[in-house]
Structures are given as structure tokens and as C-alpha cells.
Design a protein that fits this description.
Strand content of chain A: 15-25%
Helix content of chain A: 25-40%
Largest sheet of chain A: 9 strands, antiparallel
Oligomer: homodimer
Distance between the termini of chain A: 69 Å
């Protein structure tokens, strides 16, 4: 300590102090200039530090209070709640939860709140439903921005969203070695010993990417002579005579029309990282502000998907992301997960859907069970009315959003876990694109991928942020190209 | 400053320092014992202060993160977010909003979260509905506590919750000078020129505290010979012939049974402030922890209401607190409000309902429209089934809570305003007590009163906290005795 004192002392008292320091007395003055300077320096540093800390406490408290405020933490999982005085530790303990994902409060259906997304403009955000938590923001994108996104997508080229027939899908029953009696029992919801049309459709509405209607099923019965007594029901005997892949083989022989597929559209992906068109980067920034999520989470999510539906196009009701069990991996964090996970889903916490044009007829986004009191998969087909069929029953959906150029809607595909992170799947987030009856429909989707397993998300962020080629934005996101499309 | 230095200096250097301080030179040592001690004291004080502040920052951030944490602010409206270093300003600017009311996240129906209400015990809180936001907590009170509350209520004595006939209620139509044609038009919901029974009941289910059923109405028609063509409908001509108070006069002539009233129970109020029985104070503390609201708000709310339903007792569906318009005053903040407010309601933000015994038969708490997709007052009576009638149609309610000794349920009667304060009334909070078919039913109610007008609530708290007779807890709460009972 003596060395430091000597170096700090600006009064030139070094010689005398070292000399006198060795002597037992006499007692020296505490009113010397050197004493005064040192004390004053300490005193000022102390006061400044206290003021800075008080300001920090006040500032961070104030932000916490204003719930629907600007995004307060845009530094990602490991950087949340940084202390201004202590330098950020170089990822020594990044796996502890020091961040809470904000979740916007819907209050009630019809509630309108103002949001600040672009400088000098205020947008209105209206709550459309609470289950799922769903909002609409008119004028989220300008006409010019919509035009540019559509042009960029056309320049890149759009591909079929669903191939006409997907081969190689093995029957699950074959793999699991279940007997026809057991399958019959599983399908027979009301346990009356007969399979009604809707009982078959509830469990296997989609075969090889083909969407089955009650009429399709009756055609298949007739073609295969499956329903021998012609009562429209399958008994166990009739069911036993059908081979496991009879349905599939019949459908493929018949030939499949585009309108029979689960989705009938073309799409492409547009990257939004460094070097991307400014409009694409602006949209990403605006999505970050809208969702109030850390920028890192939005940056590391899937690219922008642009979709074009021609006249007659549709997308039957589906979930953008599946349920998450302990053994389920997320596509985006796979490289941080254990190798052997039997299930995988895209872990799209939020869907932001942009309407790039106003559609001449049809093309609404339908939420069949929005704000239903209960969710019951079985009651989705009743009296042979399939609520998930967006070519026929959009008018029976609880909620339909009209496509209007520049409008954005967004919703949460997962609930909160009650501790500030992603929880269970929200089954009410079921939605589809109604058939386009006139003109073309252009939309874009921005998904925000978050792993419900915080540890995996944190490890993933750590992995991608510490890669040597840190600039390479394209490569970071291009792994999403191999996402399953369904 | 010199005085303080002298007092703090333990080295006895005072005399020499003051003496030498007056001399221009020679330069004195900075290695003297006195210098060293003073600097070290400053240095340690500085280090300790920084550590304390860092701990505070860390602690408060941590609490903010853990959403369902312990109540972090129990100091009331004007004392929210106190800084530990700066003394609480003596209510210089108490009307600025520096507090945000916590609102518990229901996540989804069936979600269970652990709550810490009493030391050494963890309670489970289950979400029963999201509209209204409703929870149940089994074992909230011990058997012993339930017994004591019932005994205290009996010692104090219970009074009729509703007098048999309330006089002096003038017809609103008379005051407002509306013609019979206009009233007819208002009542005729489907505008078919006829008044169906349910159209009359939707608008005036209660007359002079008497609950009308479709059968009552038909008896009145018969008694008054109102429905001359006997088709069960009132035409404009038939309606015109009825005088404005014909219904009332007929009902009073007939004589009224207790079961015909809106509510059929007896109740009393138990104060929970200083000097009250320890069990009552404990319950108040537990409610503060449960709701995570500032203790001041709970302290300044209504006393505990204890209610006893005999066999045959009931309470038809109602809202504990009404809608709030700009011209609506709250009963509890009246002394802080403008004198002339046309409407008044009790502003019960939260209802906590305690079951003090397990009922032998019936007596459930029914929420007829909990989690309904939409709220439609008109559809509450359909096909002559009145969902608000808890003597007849409890089985048709969306949700029923069984009375179990010690269990508490609580719900929010108002939505959030999206900015951390009380917002609009939650219409879905409609509830009632089903008829007790066997035995007696004992419940207690704790209401937490908050004015949706923050300024009025703050002024009110300021007024009551600055009263000269600050100890007088009884008087503070006794103004609630004059609350309207309906």
C-alpha cells in the first residue's frame, strides 16, 4: 500500500513521508495539503459511485414498473440484467436464468394498446383472442415494404410448399407392431364397436400429405369394397380385412389433386441478417420491438418465410409448432441437445404473420377454436363437419382475420411456464388459411424460436456466439432451410 | 468537516493538527498514523457501501425475475419502490404512479403453482378459470381457524343479509319521464312487437329485492289480467294498460317468501386491524401474501364478512362490484372524491372467499359464464332457463366450486388497465351461491378495495394516513358498514 500512496501523492511529500514513517513520533498533521487532496479524491469518487448506483437502481426500477415499455433487455439470454459496475463475466456462468421473457398482456378481446415500433409513429395493437394470445397491428408494414418483400421473394424463386406425394412414410402401426384389434380399439372413440367416419378422421385426417374428407373416405370404402354391409360404418371384421396400407395405395392409384393436399401454396425463405435488404432488417427490428423479446433470440430465429397462394390455394388448420415433452428436441437447438431424442419440433414460440396484399376473395386466417371454453380434439369433427377443413368450414371458425395489405397479426404458440420462460404448447393456437376464392394471396411469416428447455437455449446461444467465424450471418440461419414444412 | 474529523480521529492528533493547520509549511507526512486511519476508515466505508448497493441491486433484480415470488412491496401506494439509502420523502409527491399492482398469471385452467403463505408450509394454488381469473387454495385456513371465525361471528351476531321488502324504491321510468312506448321498445330485444317472458326478465329480474322467475311472471300476468289474449306475450296494447308500479303492488299483496329474495342468508363483519383476534390478523396477512398486493391496500379494505346460509339458503348470481365509468365513485374513497358523482360502487378489485365448513348438500359457488367465449347478457336467459337463478340452474353453470372446510378461492372482479393498475369490470366474474340442500353453509369474504382512479386512491390513502388519530383502526374501517349489500 505504501508504494501506491507514494505514486498517488501529487504533493512531492514522498521523501519526508518515507523518512518520517520509520520514526515512532512526533504526531503529524492531518490538515496537510496531501492529506486533504487524497481524502477529497476518495470522497468525490465515493459520492460519484453512490450517485451512479442510485441512478441505476432508479432507472432499472422505473423500467420494471412500466410494463408495456420499450424492450429493456436486448442482449440475449446470457446478457440479461447486467450490472454496470461489474464487467460482464466471460461466460463463466451463463446457464443460470437471469432473464424473464416478457409476455404481452391481452387484457380482454378488443382491448387496444399503443405501441412504438418506428420512430415518429404510433401503431395500435388490438387483442383478437386470449386463447391463443393473439393481436393484430394494422399498417405494420408500408405498401412500399410489402411490394419489396414480394419482389425479393420472386427474385429468389418460390418452391412448392408441399410435394404432391411424399414417399417412404412408413405406417406407425407397422413399426410399433400393434394388432388390428388394438388399432380398432384406439380409433373407436365412443367404444360402440363400430368406426364412424369422424372417428377415423380424428385420428388420421392426413394420409401421405393428403387431407381426407368424409366423402373421400366413402369413396375409398367403395373402391376397396371395405364397407360390405354398406352402412357407412366399419365393424371390426370389416376393419380386419383392410391391409395396413390399403388406404394409401388406393389414394395413389386414384391420382391426387393439389386441392386435396394439406397445403396448396408456394414459398421461399429470405435471410434478415447483415447484408440483407434494409427492408428485411427493418422488419426484424420491428418484430423485436413488437414482441419485446431480446434481440439475440430474434436474430437466431428462422429467416422470413414468404408464401404465395394462387386462386384455390389453402392451408388446412395446423399448429406452427408441436407439443414439447422432456424427450422432445427443438430443431434450432439440436446442436446443443443430446444426440438421441425421439421427437423433434420447431419450437416456434411466436408466429408473426404479415399480409403483403389485400386478397380479392377469401384467404382469411381462421382460428377454429380461439377462446373456446375447452379444447377437445374429438369435437373438432362433429356431425361430419370438420372444423380443421379450411376449404369447407372456415365460416364455422370462432375467429377469422381478413388479409389486409400491411397488417400484421401475431400470437404465442406456447403458454408461459409461470416462471418467465416458455411453457406448454397452447392447443388453441390451431389455425389455417381459408381457400382463396379470387385473386392471389401473399403473406410472410416470422417465427421466433425459443427452446422451452432454458439450459439448451442458453447452451445453443453460447455455441453460436463463440464460433470463430462470427460474422457469417447467413450460415447461422441457413440450417433452418431443412425444417420440416408441416 | 473539521469537527467531524476531530471527533472521529482516535489517535489523539487533534491538538497538533489544528496547530499545524494554521502554519504555511513545512510539508507534512502522508504516512502518519492519523492519515492512515482516516483513509482506511473512508476506504472501508466506501467498500461496504458499494457491496451493500451491489447486493441490493442483485437482490431486487432477482426478485423481479422470479415472478411468482414473495410480496416485494408491502408499503402501499405512496411508498412503492423505496430506495434503502434515501429516506422516504414525507409524501411530497405521492400522486405520481410509482407502483404497479401485481396480477397473478393463471397460465391455463388446471395449472398449479406453489405459494408460500405461512412459514414452513407450501400451499398449492390451482387455476380454475381465466375469465374471471380465478384460483383455489385448499387448506388455506386450518380447522381451528375456521372454528374460531365462526364463533367470533356468532358472538358478534349475524343480521339478515336482505330485508324482506325494501320500500321507497321509485320507478326509474317515472323519474326519467319515459313513455310506455319507449319502455316497451327498450324491453323488446328482438323487436318483434311482443314482449316474451325472458325479455322482461333480462331487464328487470329483480323487483324490490324479489327475484322473478318466468312462473312468477305468469302468476303476475294472471293476477293482474295483463295478458288478455293468454298467449304468454305482452303486446304494446297490453303493456300500456299496466301501470308503472302494478308489478310491485301485486307482489307485495301476495306476500314474499325468503326463497324469493335475491339472497337468503345472514352475515356480520369482523374487523381485522390492531387489537382484533390474532386469527383475523393472520388471515389478513395471508391474504396480503396470496394476492401480492401492498399491505396498505389490504389494511384499508373492508372488514372480513362472515355469512351463514341455512338449509334452503342461496344467493342468485351477481357481481361483487359494478362497472366503473368516469362519473362512478368508489364507496371507500368517497372522502377523496368530488362530491357530485351520480354512480357509486364498492370497487372490490379482488374477492377472497373462504369456506369455513364442508356443506352436507348443495351450496356450491357457481360461475355461470366462466371462460365463455363471449359474454352476452341477453343469452343468460334462453328458452326460459335463467342461468343466474342459483336455486334452479346451478347445474348449467360453466363452473361450480364445492365448499370444503379451509379452502379459499379468489378472483379478480376487474381486468388490468394494461399499465399496472385496475381497469374495466370483468363481466365474467358473475357468480352466486347455489341453494343449500342439506345442512348449513358458513363462508367468509375478504374484499380488497382499490379505486380504478389511481389519483383518488392515492389521495384517499394520504388522507387516512395523515389523520391525527392514527391509532384508531376501528374507525378507519367502520365506514364500510354502510355498504350497499347488493
Amino acid at each position: 500500500m505504501t508504494d501506491k500512496q507514494e505514486a498517488d501523492d501529487p504533493t512531492g511529500a514522498t521523501a519526508s513521508s518515507t523518512r518520517l514513517g520509520r520514526l515512532p513520533g512526533p504526531k503529524t498533521s492531518v490538515c496537510s495539503r496531501s492529506y486533504f487532496v487524497v481524502v477529497m479524491v476518495f470522497f468525490h469518487v465515493y459520492i460519484i459511485n453512490v450517485i451512479v448506483l442510485l441512478l441505476y437502481v432508479h432507472y432499472s426500477s422505473g423500467q420494471e414498473d412500466a410494463r408495456p415499455g420499450p424492450p429493456r433487455d436486448t442482449s440475449g439470454v446470457s446478457g440479461g440484467k447486467q450490472n454496470p459496475l461489474s464487467p460482464r463475466p466471460p461466460s463463466k456462468a451463463p446457464l443460470t436464468r437471469d432473464i424473464s421473457l416478457p409476455r404481452i398482456d391481452g387484457i380482454r378481446v378488443g382491448h387496444v394498446q399503443k405501441v412504438s415500433l418506428v420512430p415518429g409513429k404510433v401503431h395500435e395493437m388490438r387483442t383478437l383472442s386470449l386463447k391463443p394470445l393473439l393481436f393484430e397491428i394494422p399498417g405494420f408494414m408500408s405498401e412500399e415494404e410489402c411490394r419489396i418483400v414480394m419482389q425479393l421473394a420472386q427474385l429468389k424463386g418460390l418452391m412448392e410448399s408441399q410435394l404432391m406425394v411424399q414417399d417412404g412414410q412408413e405406417e406407425l402401426a407397422k413399426e410399433l407392431n400393434i394388432s388390428p384389434e388394438e388399432i380398432f380399439n384406439l380409433l373407436d372413440i365412443n367404444q360402440d364397436g363400430q368406426l364412424q367416419l369422424h372417428e377415423i378422421l380424428t385420428h388420421s385426417r392426413v394420409r401421405d400429405g393428403i387431407w381426407l374428407t368424409p366423402e373421400n373416405l366413402q369413396e375409398i370404402y367403395a373402391g376397396l369394397n371395405a364397407d360390405k354391409d354398406g352402412n357407412g360404418l366399419l365393424s371390426l371384421e370389416e376393419f380386419r380385412l383392410l391391409s395396413a396400407d390399403a388406404f394409401q395405395r388406393f389414394l395413389l392409384q386414384q391420382g391426387v389433386k393439389r386441392s386435396q393436399l394439406v397445403r396448396n401454396s408456394r414459398h421461399t425463405w429470405l435471410y434478415q441478417g447483415k447484408g440483407a435488404h434494409q427492408v428485411l432488417q427493418d422488419i426484424k427490428t420491428r418484430v423485436t420491438r413488437l414482441t419485446r423479446l431480446p434481440a439475440t433470440l430474434v436474430d437466431l430465429s428462422e429467416p422470413l418465410q414468404v408464401v404465395r397462394y394462387e386462386e384455390g390455394g389453402h392451408y388446412h388448420a395446423h399448429h406452427d409448432s408441436g407439443p414439447v415433452y422432456p424427450e422432445t428436441a427443438c430443431t434450432h437447438t439440436r446442436l446443443a441437445a443430446n444426440a438421441s431424442t425421439p421427437f423433434e419440433t420447431s419450437c416456434r414460440y411466436i408466429t408473426v404473420l404479415f399480409y403483403l396484399n389485400s386478397v380479392d376473395g377469401g384467404g382469411e386466417t381462421a382460428f377454429p377454436v380461439a377462446d373456446n371454453r375447452t379444447f377437445d380434439e374429438v369435437s373438432l369433427i362433429q356431425n361430419d363437419v370438420d372444423l380443421m377443413d379450411t376449404r369447407r368450414n372456415c365460416d364455422k371458425s370462432n375467429l377469422r382475420v381478413k388479409p389486409t395489405k400491411g397488417k400484421a397479426v401475431f400470437w404465442y404458440n406456447y403458454l408461459s411456464d409461470g416462471k418467465g420462460w416458455v411453457g406448454e404448447q397452447d392447443e388453441y393456437a390451431l389455425h389455417g388459411g381459408c381457400v382463396v376464392t379470387r385473386g392471389t394471396k401473399w403473406v410472410a411469416n416470422k417465427w421466433i424460436n425459443i427452446d422451452p428447455d432454458f439450459q439448451r437455449q442458453a447452451r445453443y446461444e453460447q455455441l453460436v456466439s463463440h464460433r470463430p467465424e462470427d460474422e457469417d450471418d447467413e450460415e447461422l440461419t441457413s440450417n433452418f432451410d431443412i425444417h420440416q414444412e408441416l
